[in-house]
Design goal:
heterodimer; A: 312 residues; alpha/beta; seven-stranded parallel β-sheet; five-stranded parallel β-sheet; 29% strand; globular; B: 250 residues; nine-stranded mixed β-sheet
Amino acid sequence: MSKVLIVAEHLNGQLNPSTAKCVSCAAALSPEAIDVLVLADAPDAIAADAAKISGVARVLTIARAENAQPLAAALAPQIAKAADGYSHVFGPSTTFGKDLMPRVAALLGVGQVSDIMAVDGAHSFKRPIYAGNAIVDVDAPTDQTVVATVRTASWPTAASDGSASVEALSVDVALPSHTRFVELQAASSDRPDLQTAAKVVSGGRALGSAEAFDIIYKLADRMKAGVGASRAAVDAGYVPNDMQVGQTGKIIAPELYMAIGISGAIQHLTGIKDAGTIVAINKDAEAPIFEVADIGLVGDLFQIVPELTDAL
Amino acid sequence: MKILVGYKRVVDYNVRIQVKPDGSGVVTDGVKLSPNPFDEIALEEALRLREKGLAEEVIVATIGPADCQAHLRNGLAMGANRAIHVVTEAGQDVQPLAAARALLKLIDKEQPGMVILGKQAIDDDANQTGQMLAAIWDRPQATFASKLDVADGRAKVTREVDAGLEVIDVELPAVVTTDLRLNEPRFIKLPDIMKAKSKPMESIPFADLGVEAGWSLTNKSYAPPAKRSRGVMVKDVAELVSALKEKGLV
């Protein structure tokens, strides 16, 4: 039987919803137990949140000053120790998990399954390659630990009616001092987080300037939506890079995705494949975005977007 | 210091990938092959560090079949001092852990002060090799770099993370993996292609490195992704609003 250890992601004392998505993926293995590991300087509040995730048996905490920041070089050796006795170790396929989990895998002497999008068995998975243009069925060796990242856009958030026990864990491992955290330059915003928002409004190069992006923010605020952008809009400097949606930015799965002035390059479409409903607004009726949009509207976004904002 | 750059050959990013009808793989015969875009950024960054006087030598390395020599010549033409070709056998699948172990053998030999790799290759999209190499080398990793400053035996690296930009400071030697916005790689000029022909290229058979194969993933079958179908077109904002209301989305 499988036993799964999930590495919790958190920031500023808040548990990231990606953790509950990893639990959904782990549950698909029908395992004997799912435990969540919280590494932090002060893990109690985060652990209490993780304990509420339905399906979690135990929440294990490792409280160390070195765990105040998510530095892979410090976290990985602790996780590798804590992994003892588990058949699977999962983390989210966010920048946190992508940075950390391969380091854990290599310390355990195993490879990693990246971006699990479906589970076919305890050691059989589906994962995307070539920017999502092909899906490959893979088998991991059955006699070794499976370290994997979970493609969060492919999995629902597990319910929050659980009541797991919380246990402090101490692992005896020396941590390196060669890596120092300096700072996090976070784009502070009252808007819903792009990665987890139920609704997302994105703007593309057709906006033409950073100032013009204002109409996107206004519409998003009216809809209580997160705000994203195409790579072209980011590269043109209209918005910061953490707003980029696509294969090389964020891969998201909101219930509603509004693509405004975005032509729909493959790399952008890869990032929104799992969205519930895609709405496209573009002046070019031939734009590839309309091939995947559930609702399309051809026209001038500078007229349509303010009109839509007023109508909602 | 020396900088070792990983430089993988992949299907060109402009090629529309086709899955073979029997699901045994994707079509790679006769399609354009190019350097992995993230690796070109890695090489560009190494060259800029050398041009600033922060590195003396840039070594470009690849793990691939015998015909990867022309690919490595591209790296030399871009400006690397020399190349190392770890030669695999036809059809040999080198997965990230094995690639990291092979690169560690090159590190043992070359003792670089920094290793720069792309954050992922655009074929298998694994995003693992740099992190694994840093782990088994027992050195720092600075992944998804969008800015790199080297001074006094340390590197200050700005990383593109979901929450914004994270800055970390690592002791060298270290592994850095590149994100898109680190730089724009230079174009190769004709005289540089001529010059590259006389630059040294060392070939080492993969089997001679003594890398244990160990763990490997079995790729069983390939399929194209589920397609989204084209939906409805609305003619104005009023129709759009009622369509959204119908779906309960506003």
